Amino acid sequence: MRIKNDRLTNCWDSLGRDEMRDLQGRRLHSFLTNHVVPFSEYYRKRFAEAEVDPHSIDSLEDLARLPFSSKRTLISEVDGTPLTRDFILVPDEKVLSKRPSTVLKAITRGRARVKSDFEKEYRPILMTSTTGRSAEPVPFLYSQYDLDNLEMTGRRLMEVCDSRKDFKHFNLFPFAPHLAFWQAHYAGLGYNTFTLSTGGGKVMGTDGNVRLLGKIKPNALIGMPTFIYHVLQVAVEEGHEVPDIRRIVLGGEKVPDGLRRKLKALCANLGSGNVEVMATYGFTEAKMAWPECPAGDLDEPTGYHLYPDLGIVEVVDPETGKVVGDGEPGEIVFTPLDSRGSVVLRYRTGDLISGGLVYEPCPGCGRVVPRLVGRISRVSDIRRLNIGKVKGTLVNFNELEHVLDDLDAVGTWQIELRKRNDDPLECDEIVVHVAPSRRGERDKLIESINRRFAAATEIHPNRIEFHDAEDLRRRHGVGKALKEEKVVDHRELKAAPDMTTATTTIKS
Question: If 0-12 CB within 10 Å is exposed, 13-18 middle and 19+ buried, where does residue 266 land?
Fold first, then answer.
């Protein structure tokens, strides 16, 4: 039986912590007993194997009794068959027909209406997929019920980002079966506002996006950080005037403080002042994205505002899996509370949040919701390199990205890992490709990059190569790649003569 008290959804951004957690516990109980365990083949087996009665799960503390899942879980196989299908909720008509709510609905509305409602709730009609940059792509299915939730989260995203109904929004995410595009698309529908989806660079190229930017003069840009930077950069180079940009909402990549400054500076050159640059955080398995609100005069971004009625976010110690305290760093773990289609519980994202999970009112907008604060980085972005005579040097590319983005003299950049002389038995090399943001001062820029590299990693790049902006756009794969290639690893590929044209990308 569904929870009749919908206070959690009606007051999603204003409940006190204790009441919110209590309502989340009740919704978790209902979700597991009415939807997940009865209709998910994977979790039906897992709960039975672990001898866990889903009816005994009724609080957030009980989450610790549930198994973790991860990308590896989703791509695992049994007898050569992927387990992906086992995570899809497939309703059992016998179970549904015995529920009092079903019987009552059939009496009052008729069997045809009951069947139609269940089809809208459970039948998969949309598929998105992970990008496949760090593992095999994983499909995730949505029912109409999920799309209604996607529209609701899109509306909330617009509200938290302080958009306006009369704004003209540009959705510059590429047309693709990925969450980012669809979340932005449904945000426009849910908020009932003008939203033009350009398809990113693959459909009309950078030039086509720049022409539309100059012609329609939007108020808000939504898209990948690197691509939006390139579009604004070209618009400045071509002398366009775009005076009405007020919001830039970014997703799909990390957004260092330096990049925010550079985007604001480009907007100022186009004639737009007082631009708020906000990041979002989302992933395929969550089926939603969470936004920052405008930081205004605050020194730091406000953190990602979560939707407690739709999911539970935990922050755990990546080594032990134990939940850490408020405001402590750790790995982000997600459990949905109201999903259909593909469902995973306690999903370990592999994303580390530096400032943890906090519950106090947001200093920017005043909303009382859990927030993830600080920098988000990937565990997989720590790479072991053989640099010179030092074997196995650990290099954290999360820090390197911030080093380069926070240098105002660096416009765009790419880090390339390769073998010295393309010899597989030689040492590793780090080559930094840079397009300066202004002319001259190359010697000072080389010195700054070397100094900040050494401070972050105790190593220096082997070479720093300078390029114009157009060359960096080609290196990034702007208009071709789904995510621009900021860090590329050519080490293994250079060792294989028949693969010299391929590129392996480290997820950034």
Answer: buried
